[in-house]
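Give me the fold.
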Amino acid sequence: MIEIIFLDVDGCLTDGKIIYNVNGEELKFFDVKDGYAIESWLKLGKKVAIITGRKSAIVERRAEDLKINHVYQGVGDKFEVASEILKFEGLSFKNAAAIGDDYNDYKILDAVAWSFKPKDAIKELDVKTKLKHKGGNGAVREMIEMIIKSENLYDEWSKRWL
């Protein structure tokens, strides 16, 4: 069973665009549907880890809002960080899924049991499942729904908010 999902931010949780306001603060757009799916996943007792190459206060804020278990920013080797998280949680890569969109996600996507990429990810990225949704536009929700349906958890997952 998948117990933890690893999420990239730019291009997966967001559409990859970065906006700076007049004060130089970085802004990103997150999809509420992705957030709902993440919260519901966590309510099943599952884990979520954000592992991203960039650093942004807005990512920390989004992770706090969603009560995400692990947040690592400014990461060079996502595979190494994922390995440390799995060791801490007492899990292995066979219990993990991940979504990524670019070359820096390759090692982690190659290691997990179920790998995903958004519709608009680079073509060269070889994954188990190419999603129908673009990054920042429901790709993470689509990934989570596929996992829970494959593990017969959809009824329990969808009732978490009723």
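The chain has a mean pLDDT of 95.
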